[in-house]
Task: inverse folding
């Protein structure tokens, strides 16, 4: 079975295994070759994710994977939150990031940095941050970006 097929099956199993309201699957990544795969399940939660959530799902998912036995060979299973190095993938991830600084890359390859002010079902609104290093200077004020124009969004770490 190919890695992409395995990822789809694991996504289905993960969605069936959620134990807590507001917990949701962000992505499943399968890396490596048949004798040594690494399965990474990325979760998030509307109210925040904790290590217990990851541990409970990891145990449930591991048990189901052993039961259905569609992953041949050895594998490692990692269940965690996406972390700051992973882009936001789902609309559902945006509301909990209101007030945080984001870097949005549009389909047209424009880079826009700003503080997330509002999220609707169709778009986000950023209060722009002037950034000398940004490829495209975004200026100041507000900018509304439809979800359909967003290629990637990263949460920026501010100190």
Result:
């Amino acid at each position: 079975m190919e890695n992409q097929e395995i990822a789809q099956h694991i996504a289905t199993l993960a969605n069936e295994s959620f134990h807590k309201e507001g917990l949701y699957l962000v992505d499943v990544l399968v890396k490596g070759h048949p004798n040594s795969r690494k399965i990474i399940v990325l979760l998030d939660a509307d109210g925040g994710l904790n290590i217990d959530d990851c541990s409970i799902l990891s145990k449930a998912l591991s048990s189901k994977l052993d039961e259905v036995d569609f992953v041949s060979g050895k594998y490692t299973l990692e269940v965690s939150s996406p972390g700051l190095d992973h882009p936001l993938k789902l609309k559902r991830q945006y509301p909990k990031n209101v007030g945080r600084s984001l870097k949005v890359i549009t389909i047209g390859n424009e880079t826009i940095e700003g503080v997330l002010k509002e999220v609707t079902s169709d778009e986000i609104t950023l209060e722009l941050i002037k950034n000398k290093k940004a490829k495209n200077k975004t200026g100041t004020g507000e900018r509304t970006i439809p979800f359909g124009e967003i290629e990637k969004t990263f949460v920026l770490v501010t100190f």
